Amino acid sequence: MSWLTRDDETTLTVLVATSGDTGGAVASAFHNVEGTRVIILYPSGKVSGLQEKQLTAVGGNITALEIDGSFDDCQRMVKAAFLNKEISKECNLTSANSINISRLVPQMLYYFEAARQFAIEGKGEPVFVIPSGNFGNLTALLFAIKMGLPVRHVVAATNINDVVPEYLRSSEYKPRPSAATISNAMDVGAPSNFARMLELYGSDWPAMASQISGYAFGDCQTREAIREVHEKYGYVIDPHGAVGYLAGEAWLDQHPEDSVVILETAHPAKFSETITEELGDKVLEIPQRLACLADEPKVSIPMIASPDALISWLADQ
């Protein structure tokens, strides 16, 4: 982005809503990039401590807005800003999470790489199991399939915020306020990429339901999976990956002949409280790039969950 705007005298404003992980990635990627500023909206009290530090302790050209609401509120506010033509032009707005198609396009690559490895090992076509909240990762896979990638099936794994698995079962899409879980990055009640999913299938529910299956799991099951994966494989899996593991096991129970690829998501150290509760305090090693943030001061700007509040704030900047 800095290369594309190298001759632009106007500062590029990267505006994103995060349910936990994407915001930290964006903050890290754009930190001190010349000609850009990053504004991250996150739901107050609904991200883990280290996730919050990744948003609020970076400083420099990174600003964190702590929203008194849910991720869905944050997402609604960001979309309203983009739809406000005056603000969008005045602030030179762009995005870097899955609202922006430029994030989904390169995500296709690891699906092609995984399928290539399956072919080399003679395992046939893979079943991809994807922990899902805003469904950007899964939509990237659908793009890859439309380009010709051979995939046996797609499994969407969610926590109790299961509006898409419910749609796949019933053909009725019922967005609702998100509920808080230990897999917080998936706490999304109205996934913005669902519109893209519908478009890719021409709003043909039978076509989508024949290629994508959905499974949903609660926190108790997620905690059990964290323990099970560690006992069986010595691997410390984060709560989001644990939801994917559960969905993969559920699929294999019904289709034992298949081979699955389960996508892991975040480092378990971001969810140290949950991991420690389930596995004790000796299994988790916090990487230095995360540990160094723990004692940094949190710097955020509180804001009510209102699109007008964000637009007014942007206008004053």
Textual characterization of the structure:
The chain is built from 14 helices and nine strands. With 317 residues, the protein is of the alpha/beta class. It has two domains: 115 residues, 3-Layer(aba) Sandwich (Rossmann fold); 176 residues, Rossmann fold. A five-stranded parallel sheet has the order 4-1-2-3-9. α1 packs parallel to α2, α6 packs parallel to α8 and α10 crosses α11.
Short description:
By secondary structure, the protein is of the alpha/beta class.
Topology:
Layout (H helix, E strand, L loop, with lengths): L11 E6 L3 H10 L5 E8 L5 H8 L5 E7 L2 H13 L1 H6 L2 E2 L6 H20 L6 E5 L4 H11 L6 E6 L4 H8 L23 H7 L4 H7 E5 L2 H15 L5 H16 L5 E3 L9 H8 L8 H4 L9 E4 L2 H10 L1
Parallel strand pairs: 1-2, 1-4, 2-3, 3-9, 5-6, 5-8, 6-7
Helix pairs in contact: 1-2, 3-14, 5-6, 6-8, 10-11, 10-12
The figure for the number of domains is 2
Largest sheet: 5 strands, parallel
- Order of strands across the biggest sheet? 4-1-2-3-9
- Give the low-confidence spans: none
* Overall SS class: alpha/beta
Per CATH, the class of the largest domain reads: Alpha Beta
> In percent terms, what proportion of residues is strand?
5-15%
Would you identify the CATH architecture of the largest domain? 3-Layer(aba) Sandwich
Shape: globular
Number of strands: 9
Number of helical runs?
14
Encode the helix/strand succession as letters: EHEHEHHEHEHEHHHEHHEHHEH
Core attributes:
9 strands, Rossmann fold
